Amino acid sequence: MRHFLPKTIKAQLASVAVLILLSVVVFAATFYTSFSQLDKLDQASMDILKSQTSVLMLRRHEKDFMARNDVKYKDKFENEFNTLSGRLSSASAVLASLNMEKQSDVQAMLNKLEKYKYDFEVLVEQRLTVGVSHDKGLQGVAREASHRIEREIQRIKDDSIYKQLLMLRRHEKDFLLRSDEKYVDAFNQPLAV
């Protein structure tokens, strides 16, 4: 074992200094790598924390759309969703690069958010089909047809038919305001006779 060590004290001291210097370099590289990974994890953690706020904003835009029937909230929803999706994808990539076990949880969250976005888009399409105001969509078509029928009945001047029309319109409006099936039955009852 003695044959690996240098024979002079000066050479032995130089080899010890080289070993110490090499150890410091290895320690510095390990330290740098660890802090680099820690910085990446910190960024991923911040992205995940910010995503909680973004999810709440998605819900807010959904509720605003449902309450106000305004398409601008759909656009706000999509912008927030894209930001959130980018954050979570970035966090997922960082966790995957570091072989972290929670990466699958972030991916599962992304999948659930995609489903949520799809459901919201279906809701928006249904609302747009029905009509977001009295003159749009199916509501607008029904309203125009009602007005056309009313003009025709007024033109022929038959009060009994006009009275029946007004009752039908009343049941129609009650249903639109209250969404109660009894108004559909009341609407269809005179037609069954």
Describe what this molecule looks like in 3D.
- The chain has 193 residues and is mainly α.
- The protein folds into two domains: 2-130; 137-192, no CATH class.
- It has helices at 9-68, 72-97, 103-130, 137-156, 159-178, 181-192.
- The N and C termini lie far apart (114 Å).
Instruction: Estimate the mean pLDDT confidence.
Output: 89
* Rg: 35 Å
Beginning-to-end CA distance, first to last residue: 114 Å
User: How many structural domains are formed by the residues?
Assistant: 2
Shape: rod-shaped
For the biggest sheet, the summary is: none
In the predicted model, the low-confidence regions spanning at least 5 consecutive residues are none
Strand content: under 5%
Structural class: mainly alpha
Proportion of residues in helical segments: over 70%
Helix count?
6
